[in-house]
Every structure is written in structure tokens, then in C-alpha cells.
Design a protein that fits this description.
Layout lengths: L3 E5 L3 H12 L3 E6 L3 H8 L5 E3 L10 E4 L6 H6 L7 E4 L14 E7 L16 E5 L2 H14 L3 E3 L2 H31 L8 H12 L4 H4 L3 H4 L2 H10 L4 H17 L5
Parallel strand pairs: 1-2, 1-4, 2-3, 4-5, 5-6, 7-8
Antiparallel strand pairs: 6-7
Length: about 260
């Protein structure tokens, strides 16, 4: 099935989605971005047309909005065609955010995207939503050309999925940042923690549940070690509270096992 796609946006999601589509023989015909240089930077890499003018957007079958959530409604309003399918890639934004007389849908990839990181696109779960069955099937087929995992979910379920991603990725990465900052201030190499981080993830990849994979002083209810750590953090109330909250959450989770 031949599909012409226009990408609206030029950030990390746009970059990787464009690459994934092209690598799977989907015809990306244009990149639009309000900052021309950003569109040009990777459009030229693949010899794709690009523009910063809404009036120059070409006709296509599907328009994929890859912008910040707050810009989705504004960008979608200016899509100049009605006989087309316009989708956004947000996990936390409903279908109703799309403003226009065209057909509407969602094409949400559950992954963290950084420009310089190579990704296995066939492992990325895609979550699909559309106003009608035909468009739903079109988006499902498009996702299946990229990935081995594609699912149909509504906006409410997708929001729940997006939130789980925040816990699993954004919050854990922030904890890595905190650990890195403590290491830096104490002249300790953050590299010593990388085998630990790797093993933490690999245990789950080996089908051990996060519940069963938990270790550490909070799971053991080792109050002596916990108090030693808290005493180190007394000078930083934010870290003290965060350590206490996470410790209490683990204690409550395993309370009946202690």
C-alpha cells in the first residue's frame, strides 16, 4: 500500500519517525517546521522536501504532527487539506486536540528519543487511535511496517500508558541524574554505577518482575542503613524528602513480607 506522509515538526520524535518510515519504504514527501533550519538539518540528510510555510505544505495521505503537546492544536488547525488523515504522536493528548475538518487519529510511539541514539524501531510499541475503522486499519498497517508491536487503544488508556512511561523512564533517569550529581560532588566516578544500572534493567529483561527484582535496605527494612543515608542528606531537604518517600513506598510494598 503506497502512502505519502508529511511530517510536521523537526524535533527528536520527527527525526526518528522520519528515519523509521523511510527505512521501511514509506514515502515521506516533506518536512514542515516553523524554524526552517531545523527542518533543513535532517530533510537534507534524506533528500526530502522541506518548508517553514504552511502555504507550501504539499498534498499527502497522512500528516503526522511531531511537536510539543502544547503546539498540537495550533499546528493542526493550519493543515490546509480536508481529504486526508491528520494524526499526532502524543501519549497524553486526546484525539480532540486536532482542529480541522480532516479525518483524525493518533500514532503514538512509546519510546524516549534522542537524536544521537540509534534505536531498534521494530521493538518500539505503537499505540493507535482513529475516528473510523478504515483509518484505524491504515495506521495499524503503517505501524506494523515499522514495528512488531502495534496496538489500538483509546485516549484514556493511552494516557495511562504514557504515565507508566514517565515512571519507568523520566523518573528513573532523574534518579540517575541525582546519583551522578552526588558522585560528582564527592569526586566519585559515575561509571562505577553503570554495571549496577545495567543489571537492574537486565533482570527485568530476564522476565523477573520488578516486584521480585527489588533489593536494598528498604526492602529488608534495614533502619540502621536507612538512617545513615538520611543523615548524609540532611543538608538537602529535597533529596532527604525524596529518599524518604521512595523508602517508605518500598517499605509499604513489602511490609507483609518483613
Amino acid at each position: 500500500m503506497h502512502i505519502d506522509v508529511v511530517i510536521l515538526g523537526a524535533g527528536n520524535v520527527a527525526y526518528h519517525l522520519t528515519r523509521a518510515l523511510l527505512e521501511n519504504t514509506v514515502n515521506v514527501v516533506q518536512i514542515f517546521n516553523r524554524t526552517l533550519d531545523k527542518a533543513q538539518n535532517f530533510a537534507n540528510e534524506y533528500n526530502i522536501d522541506y518548508t517553514d510555510k504552511i502555504s507550501e505544505i504539499v498534498k499527502a495521505d497522512i500528516y503526522i504532527i511531531c511537536t510539543a503537546d502544547k503546539a498540537i492544536s495550533e499546528i493542526s488547525y493550519y493543515v490546509p487539506f480536508e481529504d486526508c488523515l491528520v494524526v499526532h504522536t502524543s501519549g497524553s493528548t486526546s484525539l480532540s486536540a486536532l482542529k480541522g475538518k480532516y479525518r483524525k487519529g493518533v500514532f503514538y510511539p512509546l519510546q524516549t528519543f534522542s537524536r544521537k541514539r540509534a534505536l531498534e524501531y521494530d521493538k518500539i510499541p505503537f499505540f493507535i487511535e482513529a475516528e473510523n475503522k478504515n483509518d484505524e486499519n491504515t495506521l495499524l498497517n503503517l505501524a506494523n511496517r515499522i514495528s512488531d508491536e502495534a496496538y489500538i487503544v483509546d485516549s484514556n488508556k493511552r494516557l495511562q500508558i504514557h504515565m507508566t512511561g514517565i515512571w519507568a523512564n523520566n523518573f528513573t533517569n532523574h534518579l540517575f541524574y541525582i546519583a551522578n550529581e552526588i558522585c560528582r560532588k564527592q569526586d566519585i566516578s559515575f561509571a562505577i554505577l553503570k554495571p549496577l544500572i545495567k543489571e537492574t534493567v537486565e533482570k527485568i529483561n530476564d522476565d523477573i518482575s520488578p516486584y521480585d527484582a527489588q533489593t536494598g535496605p528498604a526492602k529488608r527494612n534495614d533502619s540502621l542503613v536507612i538512617q545513615k543515608h538520611l543523615s548524609i542528606l540532611e543538608s538537602d531537604s529535597n533529596l532527604y524528602q525524596l529518599y524518604s518517600l521512595l523508602t517508605n513506598s518500598i517499605l509499604n510494598t513489602y511490609n507483609d513480607k518483613l
